[in-house]
Specification:
Elements (H helix, E strand, L loop, with lengths): L1 H15 L3 H7 L10 H32 L17 H15 L5 H8 L20 E11 L4 E10 L2 E12 L2 E4 L4 E4 L16 H19 L24 E9 L11 E13 L5 E15 L4 E8 L7
Antiparallel strand pairs: 1-2, 2-3, 3-4, 3-5, 6-7, 7-8, 8-9
Length: 317
């Protein structure tokens, strides 16, 4: 009976899974991925791969961009740059115009024109003897069409009348040629100046500068050793050549009440000067009236000159 009882207990232990044998037989190694651990591993791998890609791109892309930057010699030029030789073509067209407008000797004219036009084309520019004269020639514009072509505008008095001669010039690097017949056109019309701008003047400064500027102009023309006495400290003005002009009088002066820069210690003064023009033998040849724009500075007790230049729009405007 005791033996049976022990067997019964053992049987219950086996059925309940509480016995030692049952524990050993019932515990098995967990399957891969049991409890979601497999997905945790995959997630960690993906996260690390993402971090590595971000770090790599953050370092490599700027570095690659820096390595890919072109050198200064390789940088493309910005803007539209036309390589047409304006200065050379202007001089070339002016010489051509001088020959073209001189028909006093037609044979010599054709020979000279051959140096400016394609071979065999000089006869296309033939003109009747004494039909054209040209004086006062000057280039007033170069109308660039592209890298190789332009029209040079030459102003001239043609047969005594103001006109313009448009000369087409082709350029091949340093080589130039007149590429077609020139054309005579009317000279540009005369411009009309706008009305003068009204502004307030400074009577006190005018009175003071009427005492200072005559001495400055006299030194400017004939006594350069005294010129520095009238200049602002640090200013430099080159005097006129000796014996070129002699100061006669300051005939007019206009001093604005306010400076255009907001600094009322600095004014730009319009001055009209009458000069004596010496003759070659030392006698007086005549007189000349000219307009200047003089920049003056109030040093506190006296005005000094900073700069001098020709006056714009002294006839008005």
């Amino acid at each position: 009976m005791a033996k049976a009882s022990r067997l019964g207990t053992a049987g219950r232990d086996l059925s309940d899974g509480t016995g030692d044998g049952a524990g050993a037989a019932g515990r098995r190694p967990p399957r891969a991925g049991a409890g979601g651990r497999w997905w945790v591993g995959v997630g960690r791998a993906v996260l690390w791969a993402f971090i590595i890609v971000v770090v790599f791109n953050g370092v490599w892309f700027p570095l690659r961009g820096g390595l890919a930057l072109p050198s200064s010699a390789q940088e493309p030029e910005t803007g539209d740059t036309v390589a047409y030789p304006e200065t050379a073509s202007a001089a070339f067209a002016l010489r051509f115009a001088e020959v073209y407008l001189d028909t006093s000797d037609t044979d010599a004219r054709l020979d000279d024109l051959a140096a400016f036009v394609p071979e065999g084309e000089a006869t296309a520019l033939d003109a009747t003897a004494d039909s054209l004269t040209g004086d006062g020639l000057a280039v007033v514009a170069v109308d660039v069409l592209d890298d190789d072509n332009a029209v040079v505008v030459v102003r001239a008095d043609v047969n005594g009348e103001p006109m313009r001669l448009d000369v087409p010039v082709y350029a091949d690097e340093d080589a130039l040629v007149v590429s077609g017949r020139p054309a005579l056109l009317a000279a540009p019309s005369r411009a009309t100046l706008p009305p003068s701008t009204a502004f307030e003047t400074d009577p006190a400064a005018t009175e003071q500068l009427e005492e200072v500027l005559p001495g400055f102009f006299e030194a400017y023309a004939g006594e350069p050793e005294f010129l520095e006495r009238f200049l602002e400290q640090g200013a430099s003005i080159t005097p006129l050549p000796q014996n070129a002009l002699e100061f006669d009088e300051l005939s007019e002066i206009t001093v604005p009440s306010q400076s255009s820069t907001g600094d009322d210690d600095v004014r730009r003064v319009a001055a009209t000067v009458r000069w004596n023009v010496p003759a070659s033998d030392g006698t007086e040849a005549g007189q000349l009236v000219q307009d200047y724009l003089v920049t003056v500075v109030d040093s506190g007790d006296e005005w000094h000159v900073r700069d001098i230049q020709g006056a714009p729009s002294s006839f008005g405007g």
